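Continuing the series of single-chain predictions for the mutant panel. This is the parent chain; the variants come on the following pages.
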Amino acid sequence: MAIKIKINKKHQELSDACCEGNIARVKALIDEGLDLREIWTADVYPLVIAQHSGSIELARMLVDNGMPLYWNSKYSYRNLDYSEYLPAEDEVRQRLLFGKFDENSLPVSLALLDYAQQVNTPDPGYSGLYSASALENKYTSAISDEYVYRLLEMGADVDHLNPRGESLLHLLVLGKNDKYVEQFIRLSRDVNQLTPGGMTPLMRAVIGGRLNVIRVLLECGARVDCGDFYNKVTVLDDLIWYRDRNSYENRDGAIDQVVELMRTHGAKTYAEMVRDGDIEEAPQGE
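Parent structure:
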């Protein structure tokens, strides 16, 4: 069953003060001896409030006085639907809040890097690299540049595996900007790594229609002789399927150009691979 923790009134007072931007009250509660290392019982975690409000001063005050960089709240230790699943403490510690940001909370996340001891996490939702890849092009900036630079300097790994055996790169290729996604691809030690289900980063990029990403992956040595052969589909078939169903994106021939680029790298449709003897045709399903 879900854990039940009574709300500590002092926790609620501090969370309320954070929401109100009342730094003086926050400091007074800390000076009274409130232990910020405890599992937080109020509805909103103060460090999350600091991020969403963009208050670097508040974030530093909280962390300097012991608040963990991970989401150390009672809500971290249960599913919000109150199911029986209870994550272990080690799992909760991977929810690094400086790695979960958008364009508004990025400055606070950058400041929190000063306190970070680890920057790789199996939970992509709290990966700084993933959050950077999710920024739209118009939101990349000198601040995000510095954040990515520092994160990589601290050892952030684009090939880091999650518990399911999937590489972070498989998610990064679906990012919303070209700048960091291309950089991350070029840092990968293996652009052809497979998920347990047999997906490559190129296959993910094709399904997602990430044309620029496909170009970079091909330049970096992505294999094109891959696909879901059981269902008689190659990565080129997937791209042709995407083109046919998103004709508005091909008005200037952008997708046609990538199809031809893949062909110059040796890509074939499933029918062509069977015809040329590259693979044996999969048996018909029962």
